[in-house]
């Protein structure tokens, strides 16, 4: 029997604000434990929350970027449960009136894992619909030592946006692509850095399976707190197989919350006891209704950049780039901006794109965001090639030198004595010398072995340290050899 | 006249004229406390040393320069205990000041100590306190009311010139009425709640307990105003309440008497005293009109649903993990939470947490919490339509005078009815003032409640002030001597 899977994702995104959601404490990763806290984020008796406008604006902005409907009124609710790292034993979240409803994330081939980019699934440009986006506060972090535990509340009160997808995802690869595409948009909007190592993007996945052709989906399991996109893929792969295997053996899937052990490559139940959660949500009486219309929505709208899909389209149309080139550039808005500056003064935009994608990225892969050399260098370089002053192999070398020496390509060419010899007089003399120095090859050529010209050409190239324009040399030699008659 | 008998306005005059020094005032108060406190037990904590230090440096020309004030034990003062009269906050020292404390300090007030209360402000008698009973200065066998019973008793017995209390369902007005002093519950949002340990966030409001209405106006002026730290505080201008007291005339003023507040079960002497007060206003030129607040009968039930729901969440933070008292013997985390809270909370607090947890539980939310929210709106509408016809309402503050210690403490429902006339004001978010308006044959104070529309404190204060001036009111000295429970 063939099975299929259905997957839904809840993504928690740490918003890029200076301060926490309900107080003025700075958000700082890796600070000394409990050094970025105040009575409000510690939930001390009497302390009251004051909402961070920036966090609300960023959430609305995300909704607008993803095509959500923005609620005109939002409110905060209390979600009640006891947990040691939760200062108030309730979390301020949004229950029945989230800031954003609906919306979608479009998948594109390059968002899929490399090994799946050619699959029909990756080519289908599917849209994953969203249920909602809401804003909530993060909790602290527990640390367990040998015979005691400690809690760091620095993270408590950090604004988290929760993005809940519909169960539109059908494979671990789609889940991977969804997260990649989503992360790209969030970074684009400067809403979050989505640094998974710093826990800025965490997700819970829900997955169930059913035999193909059957109507009813099986029991759903939730895998909590996955902290990398590849872990999501791996965990889903494992879990889908586990569920199918269990069913094939006649077993039953019990509804449980699982955790993923990346080292063991397995999911494990998180809680042994099954117990129904009753969060007893109710409107937080300390916080007023959020009225989004007016200032908040206007501010959010101002922040919306050109989105990846639009950028891709525009780059390929206005610069004549291939879809691949446009995608790679659009994946990094800073790189795309850089490209546009570099291409502005270049006669051959495609060649600038190629230098950036094929050569520059390879050299400068460690410096992710900043490009230390002025964009004009790339236009200069592509123009030198275009004018026949450099050949491709030399140009590729020069990209490396531009990065290490931070000099313009013209200067590098001058200093290194690079550049092509195109002067007919100079080349004519060297070609003449080559013919005289290689009588055997000349004889071979004349006897019909035309490939022998390469040896004579090799002499010229060697003599000119590779700087001779091979095209011109070839033409000159042919002319001379044929003229020997 | 003893120094401790002065009102704030009298003290202010004398201090500014340098006829008195803040140190003299403070010392006089502490010797009164030393004399009376063993009988009353109004305070949970006193800081003589800190008060004297402060008295030495404070500027007397500030609005409350050199005036000592007592603070209810649920308002946070930096480096002082804030126990809320609960075992669970044993050992807790507040690391920050409530906004009202910042304002008082800026205004030159001297903090004397923390007054006793019902645990987490839950109760109407100050019997639910982990730090012992407070007694009514008028009859030491009786309760001072609650939950700000300590503040009311301290002011009435002249152990304090003034005090701050908090009022969630009548917790300032009812004890003021029981002890014979003045208590004001300001409009919701008028005074910042930042630093007030929450009982029911949507109803709580800090307010003054004083000897005279004039003093209440002075104190309100200082503690009011928008606070960016309290999302529910309003950006409303703060009138100079103390200067507006004399500007009001009762000519052409309509005072409403809601018929639902004169129900059966109201004490005969209370009814008589209120009627007399109403007649007095009429003689001063006010037009008295009977009005109706039809949803009044639902106020108590609505209150106990909303207040306990919020309390169940507000009190969840007291779990012994981060501060306060903790259970010593436990098996696992759940057991730890259970034992800490079982040992730390008193029975009234537990009862309300359970009730609040229940009304919010899935399946019951719509039937209780949501419905209560709707009734709250109806109650609010009742008041707004009545306030189209009249400027203020006159009612008893409590249906009866101070009851005996233990008389109602085993019957929570009876106890809940002690706030029957004050609760609707909190649900509607409007303002209410209780002033003494007579005494029972047993010598117990009777309170008159003057209810005003939102943001109209100046009106009810002026009405109350007019009453006190025209009747020649002087803060009396209660006997303190009789019926001492040892």
Automatic annotation (TrEMBL), chain A:
GO molecular function, one term: glutaminyl-tRNA synthase (glutamine-hydrolyzing) activity
Keyword annotations from UniProtKB, A to Z: ATP-binding, Ligase, Nucleotide-binding, Protein biosynthesis, Transferase
InterPro entries on file: Asn/Gln-tRNA_amidoTrfase_suB/E, Asn/Gln-tRNA_Trfase_suB/E_cat, Asn/Gln_amidotransferase, Asn/Gln_tRNA_amidoTrase-B-like, GatB, GatB_C_1, GatB_Yqey_C_2, Gln-tRNA_amidoTrfase_suB_CS
Catalytic activity: L-aspartyl-tRNA(Asn) + L-glutamine + ATP + H2O = L-asparaginyl-tRNA(Asn) + L-glutamate + ADP + phosphate + 2 H(+); L-glutamyl-tRNA(Gln) + L-glutamine + ATP + H2O = L-glutaminyl-tRNA(Gln) + L-glutamate + ADP + phosphate + H(+)
Cross-referenced Pfam families: GatB_N, GatB_Yqey
EC number of this enzyme: 6.3.5.-
Domain called Asn/Gln amidotransferase: residue spans: 337-481
GO BP term (any one): glutaminyl-tRNAGln biosynthesis via transamidation
Domain of life per record: Bacteria
PROSITE patterns, per database record: GATB
Subunit record text: Heterotrimer of A, B and C subunits.
Protein family (similarity comment): Belongs to the GatB/GatE family. GatB subfamily.
Function: Allows the formation of correctly charged Asn-tRNA(Asn) or Gln-tRNA(Gln) through the transamidation of misacylated Asp-tRNA(Asn) or Glu-tRNA(Gln) in organisms which lack either or both of asparaginyl-tRNA or glutaminyl-tRNA synthetases. The reaction takes place in the presence of glutamine and ATP through an activated phospho-Asp-tRNA(Asn) or phospho-Glu-tRNA(Gln).
Protein's UniProt name: Aspartyl/glutamyl-tRNA(Asn/Gln) amidotransferase subunit B
Organism from which the protein derives: Methylacidiphilum kamchatkense Kam1
Gene name of the record: gatB
Automatic annotation (TrEMBL), chain B:
GO MF assignments: ATP binding; glutaminyl-tRNA synthase (glutamine-hydrolyzing) activity; transferase activity
Catalytic activity: L-glutamyl-tRNA(Gln) + L-glutamine + ATP + H2O = L-glutaminyl-tRNA(Gln) + L-glutamate + ADP + phosphate + H(+)
One GO cellular component term: glutamyl-tRNA(Gln) amidotransferase complex
Amidase domain segment(s): 24-461
Keyword vocabulary terms for this entry: ATP-binding, Ligase, Nucleotide-binding, Protein biosynthesis, Transferase
Domain of life of the native organism: Bacteria
GO biological process terms on file: translation
Active-site feature positions: 72 (charge relay system), 147 (charge relay system), 171 (acyl-ester intermediate)
Pfam family, one: Amidase
SUPFAM superfamilies, sorted: Amidase signature (AS) enzymes (SSF75304)
EC number: 6.3.5.7
Subunit structure: Heterotrimer of A, B and C subunits.
Family from the record: Belongs to the amidase family. GatA subfamily.
Function field: Allows the formation of correctly charged Gln-tRNA(Gln) through the transamidation of misacylated Glu-tRNA(Gln) in organisms which lack glutaminyl-tRNA synthetase. The reaction takes place in the presence of glutamine and ATP through an activated gamma-phospho-Glu-tRNA(Gln).
This protein's name: Glutamyl-tRNA(Gln) amidotransferase subunit A
Source organism phylogeny: Bacteria, Pseudomonadati, Verrucomicrobiota, Methylacidiphilae, Methylacidiphilales
Gene name per UniProt: gatA
């Amino acid at each position: 029997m063939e099975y299929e899977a259905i997957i839904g994702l809840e993504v928690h995104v740490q918003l890029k604000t200076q301060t926490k959601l309900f107080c003025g404490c700075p958000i700082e990763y890796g600070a000394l434990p409990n050094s970025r806290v105040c009575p409000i984020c510690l939930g001390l008796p009497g302390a009251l929350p004051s909402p961070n406008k920036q966090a609300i604006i960023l959430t609305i902005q995300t909704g607008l970027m993803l095509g959500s409907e923005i609620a005109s009124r939002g409110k905060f609710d209390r979600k009640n449960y006891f947990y040691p790292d939760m200062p108030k034993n309730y979390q301020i979240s949004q229950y029945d009136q989230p800031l954003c409803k609906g919306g979608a994330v479009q998948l594109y081939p390059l968002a899929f894992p490399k090994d799946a980019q050619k699959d029909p699934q990756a080519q289908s440009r599917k849209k994953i619909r969203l249920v909602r986006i809401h804003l909530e506060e993060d909790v602290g972090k527990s640390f367990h030592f040998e015979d005691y535990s400690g809690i760091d509340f620095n993270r408590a009160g950090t604004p988290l946006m929760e993005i809940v997808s519909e169960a539109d995802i059908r494979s671990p690869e789609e889940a991977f692509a969804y997260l990649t595409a989503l992360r790209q948009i969030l970074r684009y909007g400067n809403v979050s850095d989505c640094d998974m190592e710093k826990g800025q993007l965490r997700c819970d996945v829900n997955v169930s399976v059913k035999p193909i052709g059957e109507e009813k989906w099986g029991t759903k399991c939730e895998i909590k707190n996955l902290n990398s996109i590849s872990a999501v893929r791996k965990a889903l792969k494992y879990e889908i197989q586990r569920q199918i295997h269990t069913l094939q053996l006649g077993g039953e899937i019990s509804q449980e919350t699982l955790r993923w052990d990346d080292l063991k490559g397995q999911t494990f139940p998180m809680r042994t006891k099954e117990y129904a959660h009753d969060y007893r949500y109710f409107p937080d009486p300390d916080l007023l209704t959020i009225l989004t219309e007016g200032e908040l929505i206007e501010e959010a709208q101002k922040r919306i950049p050109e989105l990846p899909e639009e950028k891709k389209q525009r780059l390929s149309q206005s610069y004549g780039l291939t879809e691949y080139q446009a995608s790679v550039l659009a994946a990094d808005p800073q790189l795309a901006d850089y490209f546009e500056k570099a291409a502005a003064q270049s006669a051959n935009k495609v060649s600038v794109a190629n230098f950036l994608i094929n050569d520059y990225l390879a050299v400068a892969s460690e410096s992710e965001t900043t490009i230390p050399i002025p964009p004009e260098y790339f236009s200069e370089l592509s123009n030198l090639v275009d004018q026949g002053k450099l050949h491709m192999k030399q140009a590729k070398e020069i990209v490396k030198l531009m990065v290490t020496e931070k000099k313009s390509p013209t200067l590098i060419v001058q200093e290194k004595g690079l550049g092509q010899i195109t002067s007919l007089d100079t080349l004519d003399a060297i070609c003449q010398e080559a013919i005289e120095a290689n009588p055997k090859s000349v004889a071979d050529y004349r006897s019909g072995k035309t490939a022998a010209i390469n040896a004579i050409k090799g002499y010229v190239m060697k003599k000119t340290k590779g700087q001779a324009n091979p095209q011109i040399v070839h033409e000159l030699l042919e002319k001379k050899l044929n003229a020997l008659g | 006249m003893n120094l401790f008998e002065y009102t704030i306005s009298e003290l202010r005059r004398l201090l500014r004229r340098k006829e008195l020094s803040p140190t003299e005032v403070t010392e006089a108060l502490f010797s009164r406390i030393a004399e009376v406190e063993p009988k009353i037990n109004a305070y949970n904590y006193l800081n003589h040393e800190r008060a004297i230090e402060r008295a030495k440096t404070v500027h007397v020309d500030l609005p409350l320069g050199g005036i000592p004030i007592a603070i209810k034990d649920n308002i946070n003062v930096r480096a002082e205990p804030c126990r809320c009269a609960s075992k669970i906050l044993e050992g807790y020292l507040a690391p920050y000041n409530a906004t009202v404390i910042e304002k008082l300090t800026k205004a030159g007030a001297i903090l004397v100590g923390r007054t006793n209360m019902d645990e987490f402000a839950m109760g109407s008698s100050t019997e639910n306190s982990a730090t012992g009973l407070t007694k009514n200065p008028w009859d030491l066998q009786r309760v001072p009311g609650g939950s700000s019973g300590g503040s009311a008793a301290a002011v009435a017995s002249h152990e304090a010139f003034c005090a701050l209390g908090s009022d969630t369902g009548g917790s300032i007005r009812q004890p003021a009425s029981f002890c014979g002093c003045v208590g004001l519950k300001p409009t919701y949002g008028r005074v910042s709640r930042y630093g007030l340990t929450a009982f029911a966030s949507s109803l709580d409001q800090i307010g003054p307990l004083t000897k005279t209405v004039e003093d209440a106006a002075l104190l309100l002026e200082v503690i009011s105003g928008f606070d960016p730290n309290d999302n529910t505080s309003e950006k409303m201008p703060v009138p100079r309440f103390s200067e507006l007291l004399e500007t009001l005339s009762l000519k052409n003023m309509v005072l409403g008497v809601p018929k639902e507040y004169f129900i059966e079960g109201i004490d005969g002497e209370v009814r008589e005293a209120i009627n007399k007060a109403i007649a007095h206003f009429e003689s001063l030129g006010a037009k008295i009109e009977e009005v109706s607040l039809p949803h009044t009968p639902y106020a108590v039930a609505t209150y106990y649903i909303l207040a306990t729901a919020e309390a169940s969440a507000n009190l969840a933070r007291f779990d012994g993990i981060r501060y306060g008292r903790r259970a010593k013997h436990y098996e696992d985390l759940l057991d730890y939470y259970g034992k800490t809270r079982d040992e730390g909370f008193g029975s009234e607090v537990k009862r309300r947490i359970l009730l609040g947890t229940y009304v919010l539980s899935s399946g019951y939310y719509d039937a209780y919490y949501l419905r209560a929210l709707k009734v709250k709106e109806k109650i609010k509408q009742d008041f707004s339509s009545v306030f189209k016809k009249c400027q203020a309402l006159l009612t008893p503050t409590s249906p009866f005078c101070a009851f005996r210690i233990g008389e109602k403490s085993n019957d929570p429902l009876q106890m809940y009815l002690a706030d029957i006339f004050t609760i609707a004001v909190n649900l509607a978010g409007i303002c209410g003032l209780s002033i003494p308006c007579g005494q029972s044959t047993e010598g117990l104070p009777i309170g008159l409640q003057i209810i005003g529309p939102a943001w109209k404190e100046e009106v009810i204060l002026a009405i109350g002030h007019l009453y006190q001036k025209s009747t020649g009111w002087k803060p009396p000295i209660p006997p303190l001597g009789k019926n001492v429970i040892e």
